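Dear colleague,

Following up on Tuesday's group meeting, I ran the structure prediction for the two-component complex that the binding team flagged. I've pasted the input sequences exactly as they went in, so you can double-check that nothing got truncated or mislabelled along the way. The structure tokens for the whole assembly follow below. Feel free to forward this to whoever is handling the docking comparison.

Inputs:
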Amino acid sequence: QSVLTQPPSASGTPGQRVTISCSGSNSNIGKNSVYWYQQLPGTAPKLLIYKNDQRPSGVPDRFSGSKSGNSASLAIRGLRSEDEADYYCAAWDDSLGGRRLFGGGTKLTVL
Amino acid sequence: EVQLVESGGGLVQPGGSLRLSCAASGFTFTSHWMSWVRQAPGKGLEWVANIKEDGSERYYVDSVKGRFTISRDNAKKSLYLQMNSLRADDTAIYYCAKDQGGAMVSWGQGTLVTVSS
């Protein structure tokens, strides 16, 4: 069981807005930045959001991140079929000597 | 273009050893922390270890401490993961990743390690 808690699944229809939550604690999300990674089927993960709400170049602005207290969210607007993937949140955890944590992952299905 | 190419995976018996390599190109290797992340079949991502630019700091997930060693050769632009006393639950795809600003900004394609008798 991951210290960062994500719903195992989420779904939406094309064009919809979906959000994926990530819940942590004071020692991780509460004190440190949150990162989001997208893993398309059969491929390596890709950085989607860094430092809570920043998008690397090349990531569409349909993807956005936010953080409040010990929780974070990834929002995808204008859902497209190619967004079907696994999404992972991540954060450093001060209680673990600064080690990294990943959430358990959320499988997003585009209906 | 950043490229990270892992190698060294394969089938190994429980209790055995394996050394993974990651060849880096397309960026200044000596300016970045590097990480290993693994993914068991059908499971989520698990950060395994990371190492500072000059190798002076290394961190590990508890489950591999004392068994795995992360290292790097900056002259060869290569990252390594020495894995000893391997167990069935170490079976996974192992990815190397380039760190930047706290994020893993580039990933290799991964190498599969299978621990089985």
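The mean pLDDT of chain B is 97.

Cheers,
M.
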